[in-house]
Design a protein that fits this description.
This protein has 437 residues and is α+β, with helices and mostly antiparallel strands. The chain contains 15 helices and 14 strands. A hairpin with a 5-residue loop joins β6 and β7. Strands 8-3-5-4-12 form a five-stranded antiparallel sheet, sandwiched between helices. A four-stranded antiparallel sheet has the order 2-1-13-14, with no helix packed on it. The chain folds into three domains: 127 residues, no CATH class; 231 residues, Replication Protein E1, Chain: A, CATH 3.40.1310; 40 residues, no CATH class.
């Protein structure tokens, strides 16, 4: 039975139908945020030409094809792929080459999870506390003030069973740049020390933003006394089968569940699988569809809320300048490592599919611009936006006219200059008297 379940999962149409059939009822019985409603509505319209499309036409046989726009919803696993790849390339391009990076995980106690769900700003507070912790760890081990590491911080809210479990994933440089422009390496972090310090930094910061009442005060004091440290992970990163940057960004850009984990949608109930920990056997969970929708939409961040943050050497304002300075230092004693990472990044950027056509060729080995009837290449005939707004129409351009658009523009510019000369005082003073003679 277990082997059979591993091979069965729903498709995209069924995933969309889950929300299409039940979203109105969910809004009637459950509280929801505006951003949740917007993302679900975009998901429901995914693949619908009414939401905008590109129309291709074959000039040989007249065959047409319509390619709908992507929905850009945070709940759509397929439309989030391109955004995921773009983020991965962007982050890799700013990472300092030749420097080791360590994957750090910082968790939070379950007693605080509801506070983070009700007030999403606390996620940013948690992220700032994590960055402050890493700076303090570097200061503790190197016994020196002002050492600046590079930190890429990813906020994740979903647990393996889709529960709301806010925690941090950090990709940090194994060392930092001192004020004396020297690189100070950090090759070891004690797990217990990290957990103790993380408890102090997180709870100290949260005190300022949590509700000022007796119940919250007692809860913070209780966590301080009863929990010796928080669960953390900071082992030296090993070579993964899956790229570490893609592994971290996937949980932010993509929805918290893929089609492959949803086994069945039937009679108003959803059956899906999950793992309690990495490498463990799959567990099967069955629940009503409203509860399943709640588990998914609760992880949608607020509008304009950033789930990826950059600190230290990777701060956007100084990332390019500091990257050049640090790589110059690293290259002086690790030339081979720098060159290998640089060459690897260049290969990834050049092989990254930038257009819809390239992505379809890479993913499905199929060219969407080839006519299915005669095999000739199709051209873009129309681009239509939402509600039928015409963005581009091939037959209404100057493509088939004698004069091109650029030629007409040059002629209009010449006429304008001649008219300005005729109206200028210099023309009347110097040229006009000579023409009258």
């Amino acid at each position: 039975m277990a082997k059979l379940l591993k091979q069965v999962y729903i498709d995209k149409k069924t995933f969309i139908r889950i929300f299409k059939d039940n979203w109105s009822e969910y809004k009637r019985i459950c509280k929801y945020r505006k951003v949740e409603d917007e993302n679900v509505k975009r998901l429901i319209k995914c693949g619908d030409p009414k939401n905008g499309f590109i129309q291709l036409r074959c000039l040989s046989c007249g065959e047409t094809k319509i390619i709908p726009f992507s929905c850009k919803s945070r709940l759509c696993p397929s439309c989030s792929r391109i955004h995921l790849q773009e983020r991965i390339i962007k982050i890799k391009s700013i990472m300092i080459k030749g420097v080791g990076h360590r994957h750090v995980v910082l968790t939070t106690p379950k007693e605080l999870w509801n506070y983070f769900r009700r007030d999403r700003y606390l996620l940013k507070v948690m992220g700032d506390a994590g960055a402050e912790l890493i700076r303090d760890i570097l200061k503790f081990y190197r016994k020196k003030e002002g050492i600046e590491p590079g930190i890429i911080l990813v906020i994740q809210t979903s647990g393996r069973s889709l529960n709301f479990n806010p925690h941090l994933h950090l990709l940090i440089t194994e060392g930092g740049l001192g004020k004396d422009n020297k690189w100070y390496s950090l090759s070891y972090i004690d797990q217990y020390l990290l957990g103790r310090k993380w408890k102090y930094f997180l709870l100290t910061r949260l005190r300022k933003y949590l509700p000022k009442n007796e119940r919250t005060k007692r809860l913070i004091d209780k966590i301080f006394k009863e929990k010796r440290s928080f669960i953390t992970y900071a082992k030296k990163e090993k070579k993964r089968k899956v790229d570490i940057v893609g592994y971290l960004i996937k949980y932010v850009v993509s929805p918290p569940i893929s089609y492959q984990r949803i086994i069945e949608y039937k009679n108003g109930e959803i059956t899906f699988r999950y793992q309690t920990r990495e490498g463990a056997k799959n567990k099967i969970r069955k629940m009503n569809v409203s509860g399943f929708i709640y588990l998914l939409v609760q992880h949608i961040p607020e509008a304009n809320q950033k789930m990826i943050h950059y600190y230290g050497l990777y701060t956007r304002a100084r990332a390019k300048r500091m990257k050049t300075a640090v790589e110059k230092i690293i290259r002086s004693f690790n030339q081979q490592g720098w060159e290998e990472e640089q060459e690897k990044l260049l290969t990834e950027i050049l092989s990254f599919p930038t257009t819809y056509r390239d992505r379809m060729k890479t993913s499905y080995n199929k060219d969407p611009c080839i006519c299915p009837v005669c095999g000739d290449e199709m051209i873009i005939e129309k681009i239509v936006g939402p509600y039928g707004c015409i963005i581009f129409d091939l037959w209404k351009t100057d493509y088939f006219q004698e004069k091109t658009y650029q030629e007409r523009k040059d002629a209009e510019l010449l006429q304008k200059k001649e008219k300005e000369q005729e109206e200028s005082p210099r023309f009347h003073q110097l040229l006009l008297p000579q023409l009258q003679k």
